[in-house]
Amino acid sequence: MKKFISILSCTLICALFTVSAYAAEKQDKCQNEKPKHVAGFISNGFWDNWELQGGVGPTFNLGAGLQSADAVYVGGYLAVGKWFHPIFGVRVTGEGGRWGQKTANWSYIHIHPDFMVNLSNWIGGYKQRVYNAVLYAGAGLGVGALNTPDLRTYEFLANIGLQNRFRVCDAVSIDIQVQYDLGKGGFRPVAIDKSAHFHGLTAMAGFTVNFNKRTFERSGATEEQAKAALEQLNRHKAAEQKALAEKELAEKQAADRQAELEAVKQALTDAQNQAEELAKLVEDQKAQAETAKEAVSTDNYDEMIFYSYGYGVLTDTAKKRLDLIAEHIKNSKKPVFKIDGFSDPETGSKSCNVRLAEKRARLVYEYLLSKGVPAERMEYRNCGTQNCPFGKPRHNRIVVIY
């Protein structure tokens, strides 16, 4: 017993010196020093996020078997802990209890530091919630048979447990804690033991009281602030895109008006030249007639895209021709071009030919649309096998653009 008390006293003295040195060092630091950040959170002060825990409940000596009451008795624990992060913390725990046996009752004590992990904050993100699952593990000195000097033992015990915390308010929570202990079998030297190792289990209910600052500060914006900033950025982008579109439209309208003005100026110049060259009226009229003929021919513009038997797919050659047609339509003054789809009336059923003619016309329409031709300048229709332009049926696997 004296040996245990000596070890415990030395441990407490070292802890006090450590706390004093840390506090003195913290006071010497500049007050304006920027706080350190750990994975998105500002590290808390030394006196923040402390907690005191306690609880009672049954203890089980699993190595003795559970066939009798000798393996079960009552125990309790007290602990002091601190959270350095919403997920990670440490605590020092002292627990003890008694077991019954046929020969005598004996008590034990186990003092151990634990490393704690808040699984709820790890998995679900840091926030104030009703329930928190805290996983912890540690190891420390265990003293068995405190009330029996002849059987007293000192062993190293490891422990792991899960603490279920139910928050009552910001400062208090109710806990249900389950813990497993493992050590040498000599920790409980009784004949009832069936295992070479000591296996202990505790299931205790208790409480946790938090002191000083109980929350953590985020080093950056909160999720709500980040969401609001993103929404504002999207609004700015939308306004910028709208302004850009309006600017482009205004520039296009200005260019169109300039083109119209240039056309008027050119028409006036042409009229003046015609008046000056009255002697060459016949030649000018012929030239104008040829120009008008060419314009009519260009604006009417007949073009055909041929397909193979049963096919509704544009070949590379057809696409190249359609690229030229697209440029012509965009540059032409003719308001609307028509796209008629035909099929071979002597092959396949009538319903299949009608669908195939529809598909061929639609493919040409969609391809020209993808090349920048406005939809309002094109009309496509399904002519099927009616009014075929060619005498030979197989020549009517075409699409006509005019």
How would you describe this structure to a colleague?
Residues 12-33 and 291-298 have low confidence and may be disordered. This protein is 36% helix and 33% strand. Helix 5 (316-331) crosses helix 6 (350-370). The protein starts with a helix and ends with a strand. It contains six helices and 14 strands. The protein has an eight-stranded antiparallel barrel. A four-stranded mixed sheet has the order 11-14-12-13.
What are the defining features of this structure?
8-stranded antiparallel barrel; 2 domains; 402 residues; 60s Ribosomal Protein L30, Chain: A; Porin
CATH topology name of the largest domain, in short, is Porin
Order of helices and strands: HEEEEEEHEEEEHHEHEHEE
Tally of helical runs: 6
Shape: elongated
Which ranges are low-confidence, i.e. pLDDT below 50, for 5 or more consecutive residues?
Answer: 12-33, 291-298
SS content category:
alpha+beta
CATH architecture of the largest domain: Beta Barrel
- Percent of residues in helices comes to 25-40%
Annotation, overall tally of beta strands: 14
Q: What's the level 1 CATH class of the largest domain?
A: Mainly Beta
| Mean pLDDT, all residues | 79
The separation of the N and C termini measures 109 Å
What is the structure about, briefly put?
With 402 residues, this protein is of the alpha+beta class.
SSE layout and pairings?
Blueprint: H1 2-28, E1 37-38, E2 41-42, E3 50-61, E4 72-83, E5 88-99, E6 106-118, H2 119-124, E7 131-144, E8 153-167, E9 172-184, E10 197-211, H3 223-276, H4 281-300, E11 303-306, H5 316-331, E12 337-342, H6 350-370, E13 378-384, E14 398-401
Parallel strand pairs: 12-13
Antiparallel strand pairs: 1-2, 3-4, 3-10, 4-5, 5-6, 6-7, 7-8, 8-9, 9-10, 11-14, 12-14
